[in-house]
Queue: 3 jobs
Job 1
Amino acid sequence: MGFRCGIVGLPNVGKSTIFNALTAAAIQAENYPFCTIEPNVGIVPVPDERLDVLAALARTKVKVPTQMEFVDIAGLVKGASKGEGLGNQFLGHIRQVDAIIHVVRCFEDDNIIHVDGNVDPLRDVEVISTELILADLESVEKRLVKSRNQAKSGNKHFLAEVQVLEQLQTHLNAGRPARTFVTDAGQDRRILVELSLLTVKAVLYVANVHESELAKGNAHVDALSQLATAEEAQLVCIAGAIEQELSQLSVEEQQEYLQEMNMTEPGLNRLIKAGYDLLGLITFFTVGERETRAWTITRGTKAPGAAGKIHSDFERGFIRAEVIAYADYVACGSEAAARDKGLMRSEGKEYVVCDGDCILFRFNV
């Protein structure tokens, strides 16, 4: 699959509760720090009503949604970059994910311990952000020592690398994440990738609120929303307790519960979709009577790369892609009708797949 979102935050903010609801995994979620030590991993279907529509039109026997992987990473604390609270181990888990879902406690409850004694979303975000930046600074400084030694020979490559690393060091020292770092040098992104920096990863904030504050929010949510806006980050507001209850109900019971709560869909659907967007992902479909399936690719993927998601032979022997836009498929009611109306296009190797494309790949190996 290759698309992983890591769920991070301070202890006792609701990470494991939300993960439980996402995966219905019923993992441990107790009221004390470091309940989660080893990261729990869950494979979650991405809700997409288009799959249901296409499967119904094709009278398909099996429908298979696309999926995302969520990793519940143990709560970080101040000093994690120096090993506090098993911090080095937890930071290593973050390095293995593609994007970060940062759960922030935005509810008051005297019965649930807060590691710092009171609820303050901006302080909590700063604690996590600072620890990630400090860990990145350590990585940059180690690389800088090595690059400076290599640059003593006058090698232009290493001289340029030292310049970029020094700029990056200054950027991080100012409390800014690596994802906002930009230089004129062409190699800056290469260095960020090679260093496996934590703060280069895209971030989605999740405000965990009490169910009574889900509709209108509260002052904590407002403060977090302003921060997310300033960082050009996304924010999703959910009530973890509600989502966990929903995850334990049947489909029919879920619909009744949602109606009672004046909700159109579970908040976790919004979270999954936001995580999907955060990673720059889109969906294409293969449609047939035997199976209708959704497939995940990164935005900008060309037709042979999309074919390779199905099987490497499809990519290796790619001839062409026969494509029907989702809206055209639905309007026509079937692949045959779309072909008869000239709405099935034959696309070559340079075609960039669009979200919602229904594709039949032609190949020869």
Job 2
Amino acid sequence: MLDFLTYDAKVAVLILAFYICYRLLLSKETFHRVNRLVLLGTAVLSFLLPLCVITMHETVAAPRPEVVIGEIGSAVVEGQQPMWWHYLLPVLFVTGAAITLGHTLASLVSVLRLIRTSEQHPEDDGTVVCVTDRRVSPFSWMHYIVMNREDYEARDAAILAHERGHIRLRHSWDLLLVDTLTALQWFNPAMWMLRQDLRAIHEYEADGAVLSQGFNARQYQYLLITKAASIGGYSIANGISHSTLKNRIHMMLHKETKRSHLVKLLALLPIVGTALALNAETVTDYQYDTPQKKQIIKENKQNAQSKPFDVVEQMPQFPGGIKELMTFLSQNVRYPEAAHKAGQQGRVIVNFVVEKDGSITEACVVKSVSPELDAEALRVISSMPNWIPGMQNGEAVRVKYTVPITFRLQSDNKPVAVQVQNN
């Protein structure tokens, strides 16, 4: 869940950056179709860009990793997130998303119920006019136009042209998409402002559809003022709203923007490039030092059973690989109390044999530090689970393996916190 919250935070930053760019450069222009695509693209692209990770690989030669072991019982893992981060934030996010999505679903259910209980009149253009006795302002949803009986009997052509404009331009699908994404960004003010601006652009486009049919602009503006005062309105539907009325009238009177201003769209490209660059990652492929190639002498089966190999075609492996081996050791080694009090530290190198069945045998110390640390290293090596055995000529064979374990004390003679590091 914390990974998703981190991803959602990146989305929030991108939405904010895109939206600020839109408000500064494009919001006053009359490119309504372009602005609509910019806002929709902002919403969708902001959710996609954090998932686009450009990966570059870098190969680094390194010695075999070793495990630095301390006293696990008293260790404090640095950088551990506090409890509120693990529990409170996810609960808060899910609660806010559920409330936001629930409000959208409630609005959708109300619209569908109103349409189902209304008197329906199919039109020749494929739309359906739904007449209700409730006092509602005209609105549209998908291919339905909902209006009260008084408006329907008046048969005002401008109202029908306005709602048909919403239907023809498929504004309902925009609302479904953005409202769903808003549930995931309910904490982000930029997302709510984007949502509001998109609805305003819907109205600009629908107003343009009315005026393009030759309706008188002043009479239409007066009609908007009259209908905006009506009761009703659903967040999921397109309807005449008083909150955007002033801007709509201003936009009708606004001089059409020159097409050369579309060059402002190029300002969005640096945001995309920066997002991809910041999200890029370099994967380091460690190539561990290996012994020089040795001639592998083919032995008969009787010898192969008694003498372990030093190098084989497929070396034995701890379940999960080197990383899991280091994790196992750091979680299971205990710093001996006697060695701790005596200030003993250093690297113990243990040699052992991985049998054909993956079991560990013949563990012995090849580089000693002290009896206490040697014994602890042998104990943990012997307690390891079965390995994936080594393979030679397609058969499992016995193979020698060496693992270094380092015991280290801090300057104040305290064991260091358990950690795994590459040297």
Job 3
Amino acid sequence: MKKGLCILMIAFFASCKPKQVFVDTKTPANGVNVDTTAITSEKIIQKHNNNKIDFSTLYIRASAKYRSENDSQSVSAEIKIKRDEKILVSIRVLGITMAKALITPNEVKYYEKVNGNYFEGDYETLSQWLGTDLDFNKIQNMLIGKPIDDLTKGNYSFTEIDNGYKLNTIEDKTEKSFFFEMVHFLLKKQEIDQPEKERRFEANYPNFQDYPLGILPAGININAFQKKGKTTIEIEYNSITFNEDLSFPYNVPDGYDRIFIKQN
């Protein structure tokens, strides 16, 4: 199976330069300096969570570039999200559907046309294959510019950095860092570092779009570092519509072969 195409598809779940800067994340709102004297980790989390995104469904038209040590691809995609229930991704090259994936809180399914293969399985198997832990909430949050973890349930140290703040925690030999700008407290970057496993994952959000129902990323830049090398994925959200009545069709074409991912 052409693994690059499948990793790109999963990266849409997990996460380009946007064409335009939509939300000012450098200048304090209303020209007033931000008072950092009372800032704490808890207040950063609270202010970030105050940025509500009100939607039942999202329909995202996107384009992406994938690069690894020995492969590169450019594709277009449609991403459909029914909040907390399912995500459907269709990847196209020159208008032809080359891969499709459907994920729910319990399972992941996808097929790819190049070699006529399909996969059905759980997150444990997929996480081991990709080298980073995944579940439905992490994927959904990453796509909409939210932290992969519920920050209210963790303990984080707080550091002030250039034009923003950094929250950091280390648990079970895994270090997680979340970077926020200081105007709207939007998430600019999130990192997962596992030194013993020699792998690191980061998702960057260069710019944002302000919609009537909330602020969303204008794109995601993903970098994944493993022993075998670096993978880079640049995703640009070309358009987003809210609360449409979406369908989520998924059927594996006849004659495709099921693949099984060997667990370590």
